[in-house]
Amino acid sequence: MKTIFLRPGKANTEALNEILSVIKTETEFISVAVAYFTHPDIATALIERTKENRRTRLLLNTSDIIRPAGSDSEVIISKELLKVINFADYQSNLEIKSLGLRAKGKYQNMHHKFMVSRNKVIFGSVNWTSAALNSNYECLVASTDKKIIAEFLDEFNEIWRDAQELYTDKGQLRRIMCPKCEESDGVDFESFGPVCTYCGHKFKMI
User: Fold this and answer.
1) Which of 10, 96, 127, 155 ranks highest by number of CB atoms within 10 Å?
2) Is the residue at 9 inside a domain?
3) What is the CB neighbour count within 10 angstroms for residue 204?
4) How many domains, the chain?
5) Burial class (CB in 10 A: 0-12, 13-18, 19+), 86
6) Hey, which residues does 5 pair with through a beta bridge?
7) Distance of alpha carbon 158 from its chain centroid, rounded?
8) Which 3 state secondary structure label does DSSP give 138?
């Protein structure tokens, strides 16, 4: 077992390299449950992995795909996350689902941060963001223990069954509710960029 501690202001690429190593080198499928990510190197690695026809299951937190910023009417979506979401589709080797919801007072939170393959599991406090990997107090653990791997695989498979498909059977992104007008039919992430065509609300990119 390998443990990595991250501290603000301390140059340490070990945690990022550990994450990228699994994404880039694992020949069988990997399963990722991470609430949110913004890191460009990770987005690129996931896309390249998919181009190489290697399977990935990515489970995101529904309410973190679009995140509140400043006020209820301003929402930020990660441009790196959107790259990955728009690259995949319902027939892709990159399967994406979301778990938890933010709608009219109901709230569930999927706050896992782990990646598991048949050979290794990586877990800890680290979201896949530049802030977490460069500016926060965080911890990351990597293990090749078969029992621990099996437990994380079981957990992933269980929550994957409960998660919502991100794509419809027509290959389009499922609708995400607009935080301003609370409608989902008008939210368009493909034709016009991230905007609600009903009320005109524009989703801010980071």
Assistant:
1) 96
2) yes
3) 14
4) 1
5) exposed
6) 139
7) 17
8) strand
**Position 203 in a domain:** no
Query: Mean pLDDT score of the chain, rounded to an integer?
Result: 81
pLDDT tens column, 55-93? 999 998 876 665 555 554 445 567 888 888 888 766 679
Q: Which residues contact 70 (CB under 8 A, 6 or more apart)?
A: none
* Kind and range of the H or E run holding 45: helix 40-51
Rounded CA separation 91/93 (Å): 7
| Most confident stretch, 40-49, 128-137, 157-166, 187-196 | 40-49
Judged on CB neighbours under 10 Å (0-12, 13-18, 19+), 145 is: exposed
Residues 6+ apart with CB under 8 A from 68: 74, 75, 76, 179
* Cα-based distances in Å from 126 to 15, 68, 88, 137, 141: 9, 20, 24, 9, 10
Full residue range of the structural domain in which residue 96 is found: 2-171
